[in-house]
Amino acid sequence: MIKIYKTFLALVLAMLCCGGAQAQSNMTFFEPSGGALASWSLLDVTKVTFNGGDIVVTGKTGVEQYFDLSNVMSIKFTDSDDTPSSVTTIRDITSQLRIATSESSIRVIGATSGTVTIWNPSGQQLYSNRNWNGEDINIAHLERGIYIITINNTSIKFKK
């Protein structure tokens, strides 16, 4: 009797928890100005992939639609009345943060302060500055090779 009661209670709790959830039925791409770029029923979309600088939406019929990533600010999943349920902002970090290297220094373009760390491919920390103020970073002491620089939680690979 206790086993039946526990099973019944578990079913009731599951129904209560899931009863308020609504499945989203549409996916909409929005441009930086906030206007809708394109919208699809999720039943018609088989996959969404990235190809170079494009987002590729493939439909059930196999037709692919390409959208330039720089023209897509956000993707919203909506229910049938177009009420957004979640928003994911897409940022192209590489266009905002770049580095220029020479034999003796690295110049960071797109950031002016924060934390900078340089790592070798084995994960050994070679340089760290928590109070970096935009100045060039001396790498004259590093041997030729591949390194990773982390600037405010964004990592970029570079070669000396």
Order of helices and strands: HEEEEEEEHEEEEEEE
Number of strands: 14
Percent strand = over 45%
Structural category is: mainly beta
Number of helices: 2
Q: State the distance separating the first and last CA atoms.
A: 73 Å
* CATH architecture verdict of the largest domain: Roll
Can you lay out the helices and strands and say which pair or pack?
Blueprint: H1 2-19, E1 26-30, E2 36-41, E3 45-51, E4 54-59, E5 64-68, E6 74-78, E7 84-89, H2 93-96, E8 98-101, E9 105-109, E10 114-119, E11 125-132, E12 137-138, E13 146-151, E14 154-159
Antiparallel strand pairs: 1-2, 1-6, 3-4, 4-5, 6-7, 8-9, 9-12, 10-11, 10-13, 13-14
List keywords for this structure.
14 strands; SH3 type barrels; 48% strand; single chain; four-stranded antiparallel β-sheet; elongated; 160 residues; Immunoglobulin-like
Write a short abstract of this structure.
The chain has 160 residues and is mainly β. It has helices spanning 2-19, 93-96, and strands at residues 26-30, 36-41, 45-51, 54-59, 64-68, 74-78, 84-89, 98-101, 105-109, 114-119, 125-132, 137-138, 146-151, 154-159. The strands form four sheets. The chain has a four-stranded antiparallel beta sheet, with no helix packed on it.
Question: Please, could you describe this protein's structure?
Answer:
With 160 residues, this protein is mainly β. It is built from two helices and 14 strands, in the order αβββββββαβββββββ. The strands form four sheets. Strands 2-1-6-7 form a four-stranded antiparallel beta sheet, with no helix packed on it. It has a four-stranded antiparallel beta sheet with strand order 11-10-13-14, with no helix packed on it. A three-stranded antiparallel beta sheet has the order 3-4-5, with no helix packed on it. Residues 11-21 and 90-94 have low confidence and may be disordered.
